[in-house]
Amino acid sequence: MLGMTWADFAPYAWSCMILPLLIVAVIAYFCGCFNGAVIVSKYILHDDVRTHGSGNAGLTNFHRTFGGPLTLMVILCDVLKAIIAVWVGIMIARNWQEGFWRQEAVVTVFAKYWAALFCLLGHMFPCMFHFKGGKGILSGGTIAIMMDWRIALVVWGGFLVLVVLTRYVSLGSCFAGASFPFATWFVYQDAAITVLAVIIGGLILYMHRGNIHRLLTGTENKLSLHKKK
After folding, report:
1. Which of 73, 113, 176, 211 is exposed most, by the fewest CB atoms within 10 A?
2. Three-class SS of residue 56?
3. Rounded to an integer, what distance in angstroms lies between the CA atom of residue 123 and that of residue 187?
4. Which residues, at least 6 apart from 39, have a Cβ–Cβ distance to it below 8 Å?
5. Exposure letters 170-205 (e unless 16+ CB within 10 A, then b)
6. What is 136-149 written as a DSSP string?
7. Which residues make Cβ contacts (< 8 Å) with residue 118, sequence separation at least 6?
């Protein structure tokens, strides 16, 4: 838990936080736009992953379509952009909170979640790729690790258990999105930060709405270690 909530800090900070939040949002969004699956498939393989399989620009569809060592490049790209986006939020928050050092913890956490939200928006709706991106699980999983180890334990633990037991990546992804706000509230118990977590988790569930329908109808694809021929 944080010693002081965002609600306590906000009355003193609204007048000076608009510009820093905008800067973080813009940088994080464009970090998110660097979609590993699209970049590798379109510019290295010259075969856009969005024209195959589910049409999604994510790791699972890339692996099912192309497989091979280039999958590692997709992973690296999507992990690094999330790290950079959240790191930018942290660095700007540290400069932003001069004069408010007692609230350092809550400001930094809020900035991390804010940056995470816009990084995922960039990943899901990249302006440079016609707003057609991925579902945010790999970047979202990286974000969970950067927030707090307890949040990462819930999100990743549930994801891995469900994928191993059912071989449905989408089921584990939906659990990750749904559990993220609850884990956030358990750790921080701050309303504003939890609202950002709800939006992040909601976006992940929204991007998986097709998978949810297929899970309910029994037509969802299971994880395979080999790409489809």
Report:
1. 73
2. coil
3. 26
4. 77
5. bbbbbbbbebbbebbeebbebebbbebbebbbebbb
6. -HHHHHHHHHHH-H
7. 24, 25, 26, 28, 29, 32, 85
Query: Residues 81, 55: contact at Cβ < 8 Å?
Result: no
Contact yes or no for 171/215 (Cβ under 8 A): yes
- CA 131-135-138 angle, to 5 degrees, is 125
List per-block mean pLDDT (blocks of 10 residues) for the chain, which spans 229 residues. Answer: 57 66 94 88 84 76 80 89 94 68 69 95 89 86 93 95 91 94 94 94 94 90 62
> Measuring CA to CA, which residue among 197, 94, 66 is closest to residue 143?
197
Residue whose structure tokens are 């609850």: 182
pTM value?
Answer: 0.84
The predicted structure's pLDDT at residue 180: 96
Residue-level pLDDT at 99: 47
Do 151 and 180 meet the contact criterion of CB atoms below 8 Å apart?
A: yes
Distance CA(58)–CA(35), nearest Å, equals: 8
The number of helix segments (H) and strand segments (E) in the chain equals 10, 0
Q: Helices 6-32 and 104-124, interaxial angle, to 10°?
A: 30
